[in-house]
Every structure is written in structure tokens, then in C-alpha cells.
Amino acid sequence: MEKKNKNSKKPTYSKFSQQELPAWKPILSPGWVIATFLTIGAVFIPIGLLALAASDSVVEIIDRYDDGCVPDDFSKNAQSFIQNPNTKKTCIRTLKVPKKMVAPIFVYYELENFYQNHRRYVKSRSDKQLRDPDDEDETKSCYPEANTADDKPIVPCGLIAWSLFNDTYKLSTKNKAITIDKKGIAWKSDIKAKFGSDVYPKNFQKGKLIGGAKLDEKKPLSEQEDLIVWMRTAALPRFRKLYGKINTDIEAHETIKVEVENNYNTYKFSGRKKLVLSTTTWIGGKNDFVGVVYVSLGAICIFMAVNFILLYVFRPRRLGDPSYLSWNRNPIG
């Protein structure tokens, strides 16, 4: 007498394991397909038009100043100008407001040809050191900006912090200064989780080669939001980072005077610098991509629906009998 195999891996029969549970098995008839395409088109096109209208209502002023803020004497050697501590870096720019800008107005700096996503650059930081003062010696991953010449740890260490953007902007209109609010520009999650409230800068930008801005050693890293914004590295070589917010309206056709401190050396790698003032809407800043995608997809669906209607009218095909489908047939036996 044969013994039953007790170690069989055959699952216990159930409708779930054999995929026999009731399921919706639609038949894609011409009517269903045409109705689906028409519905998608009817929904997507209005959404796309709303997104385009919202993007068009954003007031955005962009001013590239890296070339214009170099004196004519240094036009052929801008790098020597930016590296010379005796040259005056202050530059005056004027911006014309095309339409009324309703607060909050966001002030950005935009960099091009700057690869923050480079592997060695991204890895050159110490998250432990940024969070806990007891881990200030955790600088192994921060090469080459890890320790000073006398082997004291740099806080914050690494190339990302070392290259902190240090151009500054002062705005005014009608000889009245425009206040730029620097609070609340960083992600709250970064402030609470990534930067310690009891971690203070030490030995930062005190080497022979200065990378960018300096930090206030009396303020903890969690309060230095310019650094926090900069430390969230960008994925593309062209990016914007938030510099501050203006909480007052600026009327149309006003002239904004901008006093730029042109300190950041983008000339060495043929980078470009821009100042951006922008309002926002429910969709965010000025960006036509979402609207164009929705309108394009909606138009394609309408086009396909019209083609299917014409084919169905002029060259129809007889549909098969759904009763012959496998799930509609009675099982044998």
C-alpha cells in the first residue's frame, strides 16, 4: 500500500489560491473604448487649460548678473576679479516689474552648470556630525574638507557645506528698502531631523582656500537656514534655491534696485548666476509642463476617439458572441 507524501508542497485548494474568485472581466467593445477616450479627453483638457492659466498668472523676473557684474577691465579674466580680495564686488542692477506682484514673493538664486549631483560631492558630508555634537569627530566621509591643518574637526565638514553660496542681495524701490525674510525657507523636516539645535560651527572656512559663505559660530546649525537649503543637493546641473521671501506687494511698473554682492566663483567652471523673483499660484511657480502634458494627452485621446468612431461607422466589424468566452462557458463534467 502506497504511503501518502506528507511533505507535499501542493497548496490546499481554495478559490483564492486557484484565482477563481469573482472578478470583473470587461469586454472592450467599440462603444466602451470610444467612451473611455472621450471621457479622458474631456477631463484632461480642462485641467491642462487651468494649469496653463495658473502658470501664466505667475509673475516672474529673471536677471542674469554674473557677466554684468564684472568690470570691463576684468572681462577677459573674470576669475582673477572674483578671487582678488581688493576688488569691489558690489554691483547695482535694476529690475522692471511687468505686473503687480502679490506677496509672498519668493527670492531665488539660480545656478547653471553646477553639478551638485556629482558622486564625490554628494558623499562629502557627515550626517552624524550635523545632528549630534558628540559626533563632531565623525569626519571620515568629508574628505578633503574634514580637518584643519592641526587636525581639528571642521563643523560642518565636507565639500557641500564648504561651497556654501555667498552672494547677497539688497532690494529697494523708491529709495525704500524691501525686507527679505530669511526664516522659514528650509524644509521643517530638515531642521528638526538633520541639523542639531545644539551643534555649532567650528573651524569653518578657516583654511587657506575659502569655498563660500561663512557661518555664525554663535548660532546652531538648525537656525542657519541658508546652509540647510544649500545642503539639500540638486539633482540637475541647473537649479534654483530659495534665498528668502518678500511679504509685501510690489506694484506694477515699479523699478526695483538690487545691490548684489558678487562673491561666488562660478567663473572657474563657466557657471551662470541668476536672481529670480517669483510669485506662486495653486500649482506652484511658473511651469507650463504640467498644463502642456494634460492638454496633449487629452487631445491625443480625443483624436483616437474620433478615429475609432470613423472606423466603426465606415468599416465596422461584427463582434463575436461573448457566450463563447472561456469564463462564460460551463465547465465540462
From TrEMBL:
Protein name per Swiss-Prot or TrEMBL: ALA-interacting subunit
Stretches for region Disordered: 125-147
UniProt xrefs under InterPro entries: CDC50/LEM3_fam (IPR005045)
Signal peptide location: none
Localization, UniProt: Membrane
Entry keyword set: Membrane, Transmembrane, Transmembrane helix
Transmembrane regions: 32-54, 289-314
